[in-house]
Amino acid sequence: MDIHNKEFKRSFRGYNEDEIDDFLDKVVNDYEKLFRENDRLKEELARAKKDNEQYQQLEQNLKDTLLVAQKTAEEVTSSARKNAEETRENTARECANKVQEAELKADRIVEDAKKKAQVIVEEYDRLVREKNNFLRKIKVTLESELAVIDDTMSQLPDPEKEEREKKAMGTQAEALQKALSDHQAVPYEAKELGKEENNENKQEG
């Protein structure tokens, strides 16, 4: 509607044309503002619709991506669980086999150790018996040899004994000689004493 070029018919004793023109100018200005605002809102609405479509497309893409990711995660989780279960079962079997092998090996080692220990004990007992027999033989031999040595030594002259006997005989001889000397000295002293007494008697007479 063309408000600027709108013309009204004149009538007798009608409204004031200037006031009508002023009012129409205001109406035109307000209408133009509303029209421009409407255009702006339409543009914004169009942009909003476009943005909304983009957001919806993005949201759909995100949903699709999430669905794919969720499906992939479920598949990966299922596969991981399956692999983990298989790994656990395989590991359990391997552990059981290794434990059984270790037990069998330990039993063999223990059995071998018992046999070796038995052999060592028997060998030790044999060596002890041989040692005791050897010591008994050595003892008997040494006792026999010592008896022979004692018998031989008893028949041999004893230099120390002879020396002691010589010393004893020498001591006895010296004692005898001293006794003889003392016996001979007593009469001599008595004779001299008698001579002295005779001389004294003569002098007194």
From TrEMBL:
Residues 24-130 form a coiled coil. Transmembrane segments: none annotated. It comes from the Bacteria. The keyword Cell cycle applies. Residues 151-205 are annotated as: Disordered. Keywords: Cell cycle, Cell division, Coiled coil, Cytoplasm. It is found in: Cytoplasm. One of its GO terms (cellular component) is cytoplasm. One of its GO terms (biological process) is cell division. Its main location: cytoplasm. Residues 158-168, 189-205 have a biased composition (Basic and acidic residues). PANTHER family: CELL DIVISION PROTEIN DIVIVA. Belongs to the DivIVA family. This is Cell division initiation protein. It comes from Selenomonas ruminantium. The lineage of its organism: Bacteria, Bacillati, Bacillota, Negativicutes, Selenomonadales.
